[in-house]
Amino acid sequence: MEIKNAVAGTLESGDIMIQIGPGKGLDINLKSSVEAQFGSQIRSLIRETLSGLGITDASVNAVDKGALDCTIRARVTAAAVRASGVDVWKD
Q1: Which of 9, 37, 47, 55 could form a disulfide with 75 if both were Cys (CB 3.0 to 4.6 A apart)?
Q2: Could you tell me the residue ranges of all domains in the chain?
């Protein structure tokens, strides 16, 4: 699956900005004020969401502003759909 550059989310409080681009393997770069407490969980959630969408090669930059798990999944999914062109919501 070809991955292009795409972005989803904002830098507002309670949100996360996800930038996806081409890469080898899943390279996740995370900046978060709660990284010490939740960094591993956030990275795992990003990796799990992308793997579930069939994306195994991508470079991901994430800037977290205290997003909940459901918001992280939604932003990663939206960025992945924009990056891959595959609509996961289409029947």
Answers
A1: 9
A2: 6-84
Residue with the two structure tokens 């994430």: 62
Question: pTM higher than 0.85, yes or no?
Answer: yes
Fold (CATH) for 6-84 = Ribosomal Protein S5; domain 2 (3.30.230)
Strands (E), the chain: 6-8, 16-21, 26-32, 58-64
Q: From the centroid of its chain, how far is CA 61?
A: 8
Tokens matching residue 63: 């800037």
User: Could you report the per-residue pLDDT of 16-73, keeping only the tens digit for each?
Assistant: 999 999 999 999 999 998 999 999 999 999 999 999 999 999 999 999 999 999 999 9
| Beta-strand relationship, 58-64 and 26-32 | parallel
